[in-house]
Amino acid sequence: MSEFEAVTLTDPSSSLTATVVPMAGMIVTSLRDGEHEFLGQRRGLDAYITAGKTMGIPILYPWANRLSANHYGIDGAVVTLTPGTGGVRTDENDITIHGVLTGYSGWLVSDRSENSLTAVVDFAGRPRLLASFPFPHVLTQRVTLADRTLTVETTVTPTTGASVPMCFGYHPYVQLPGVPRAEWTLTTPAMRHRPVDDVGLPTGAHDDWPGGSTLLGSTTYDDGFDQVPAGAVFTVSGGDRRVEIAFLEGYPATQLFAPPSDDVIAIEPMAAPTDALRQGHYRFAVAGKPETTRFSIKVW
Length: 300
Known about the structure:
Blueprint: E1 7-10, E2 16-21, E3 27-33, E4 36-37, H1 45-51, E5 59-60, E6 71-74, E7 77-80, E8 89-90, E9 96-97, E10 108-112, E11 116-122, H2 127-130, E12 137-146, E13 149-158, E14 164-166, E15 169-170, E16 173-174, E17 185-188, E18 191-194, E19 207-209, E20 212-215, E21 221-226, E22 233-238, E23 241-249, E24 253-258, E25 265-270, H3 276-279, E26 283-285, E27 291-299
Antiparallel strand pairs: 1-2, 2-3, 3-4, 5-15, 6-7, 8-9, 10-11, 11-12, 12-13, 13-27, 14-26, 16-25, 17-20, 17-22, 18-19, 18-21, 21-24, 22-23, 23-27, 24-25
């Protein structure tokens, strides 16, 4: 889709490049070292824009993953979500998924350099977005590439006295170029496991996840977690390749997703667990106090 300009960021200290497409939801589509691609391309950018089929590093905003119903309550009010309008999408089970900014073209670039790109969305001026998430605020995303590390910083700034729920996340698909999936080793921190049911929603159960390293092999994941330690680091390694995902600030939850049909794994930084917008398990950005989250992906 030629109308969507792709911005290539260059690492001043290495041959690494990153590609960001602001008008397609500020999605990061590529993280490359020469011919070696570290992000899962899956069905490609066009399928992301037209059908919401995720690839690369998309933002899931204002909620990450699925909601257990098409409505949620806050301060005694109920917000009703209408699939197909206001950016609301559903999965194959007709469950609301991934927020309202999938492929969203309304991002405005506010700053750009050789290795950094910043863009904003002002919800107050977007009735289409406010219909699904009626909390006026400015959402700012800054993507930086330096020292073989891609860093994504997200700031939520309320623009009225209303506090803004923090339930969003990102869905980075990573891969090890040239290394078979069967040889990848996944390393995770200790955290709390929140199993999901057969449609991807939390069951309400939980158990301890001891962390450590395990061979990915043919194992599949679609598992939720919370109590992720501040500054937690996850790694995927194999051969002479390594990808390190660090939850630097503001991400106490995650989802591990390793599908059986694609050689990728997603380690998702989440500001709150799946279905938090309905369950109420989240924090707020309050007036006069913007909230900033950060995660990074370093590759070798």
